[in-house]
Amino acid sequence: SFTEKGGSIQISGVGLTENDVATFMTNLERSAYYSGVELKVTKQKVQDGLRLQNFDISCRAQNPVSPDADK
Q1: Cα 51 to Cα 7: distance, rounded to the nearest angstrom
Q2: Beta partners for 46?
Q3: Which of 47, 49, 45 is nearest to 21 (CA)?
Q4: Which of 1, 9, 15, 50 has its CA 20 to 30 A from that of 40?
Q5: For residue 27, what is the DSSP state?
Q6: What is the 3-state composition of the chain as percent helix, strand, coil, each rounded to the nearest 5?
Q7: Cβ(28)–Cβ(71) under 8 Å?
Q8: What sign has the CA pseudo-torsion 31, 35, 39, 40?
Q9: Which candidate, 26, 51, 52, 46, places its Cα nearest to that of 38?
Q10: Residues 25, 52, 3, 38: is their CA dihedral positive or negative?
Q11: Hey, how many other C-beta atoms are within 10 angstroms of the C-beta on 5?
């Protein structure tokens, strides 16, 4: 799930592995649209024989600076 209120974003989801969750966080951090990415919770669960990672991430929305902003 994805919720945004006043620029504060909460993302909850499920990854196949801890590495998948870490890669998702890294991609958010590299994006010009998000800042302050923090992992709040990660819990392992077994579903249909698979070990999955539930996660909650918080971050802030930001407007990227346009290269033409100074013109």
Answers
A1: 33
A2: 51
A3: 45
A4: 50
A5: H
A6: 20, 55, 30
A7: no
A8: negative
A9: 26
A10: negative
A11: 7
